[in-house]
Amino acid sequence: MWLQKNNYMFKDLFGKAMLDYVQNNQPENLITETNISEADEMDVSYLFRSFKDMPKLEQKALKLAKGSVLDVGCGAGSHALYLQEKGLNVLAIDISANAVETCKIRGVENAMQIDILQVDESEKFDTILLLMNGTGIFGRLKNIDQYLSKLKSLLTDNGQILIDSSDIIYMFDEDDDGGKWIPMYGDYYGELTFNISYKGENEEPFNWLYLDFNTLQNACIAQNLNCELILEGSNFDYLARITK
C-alpha cells in the first residue's frame, strides 16, 4: 500500500516489517542508511520489546505518563500496551497503516492511522509521548514551530509532552582546535535523510530530525512553552518534558 507523507509517496516498509513479525510471515531485518552513515541492519524484534528491555529514557517517560495519553508514532505499540496495562487511557497513532494493524493485533485498544498534524484540536491529552527520537517527525528545523504549536493545542492545561532525541554532533570529525567539521546538507547538522530497505524493496528517502536539547528548549520558549531536561542517556540522548 502506498501512503502520502509530507508530499511524497512511501511504501510503508517499516510497517510491513512489523506486520510480518507479528503475523510470523518470515520477517527480515530492516536496512537503514542516512546521508552521514553507512547501511546498518535493524532487527525488527527490537520494536516489540517489553518494558524491562527498553532504554532507561523510555522507561522514565512511561513512568511519568499520566491521565489520558497520546502516543505519537506508536510503531508496534509497545509503549501503548505498557500504559494500557497500567490502566491509562491511550490513543496510539501512526501514519503507517501496517503499524496500526500491528498494534491492534497485539491488543492496543485504541489505535488510529493519522498524522499528528491532522488530529482534531478538540481532543486534549494529559500526556503526549514522542519516543524513539520523537523529534524525528519534525523532519526539518524549519518545521519545529508548526509541530510544537500543534502539540501545544492538544495539551490539557496541566498536560505534558515527553519527547526524546539525541545531539548527533559527536558523529562529526574534530579539527586540531577541537572544532567540528560539519558538512551542511541543510539548515542544521541534525537534519538527516533516511533510506530504508526491506525484503529487496527500497523506501522513498525521508527527512528525519535529531535535535540537541538547547535548540529544542529555545524553540519551546518561542512558543511560550517550558522545556526541562529530565534525563540524559549514555549515547548523547536525552528525555525532555514540555509544559505550558
Automatic annotation (TrEMBL):
Family matches, as Pfam families: Methyltransf_31
Recorded superkingdom: Bacteria
Domain named Methyltransferase: residues: 67-167
Keyword Transferase appears in the UniProt entry: yes
GO biological process: methylation
Keywords on record: Methyltransferase, Transferase
Chain segments annotated as transmembrane: none
InterPro entries: Methyltranfer_dom (IPR025714), SAM-dependent_MTases_sf (IPR029063)
Protein name: Methyltransferase domain-containing protein
Source species: Paenimyroides ummariense
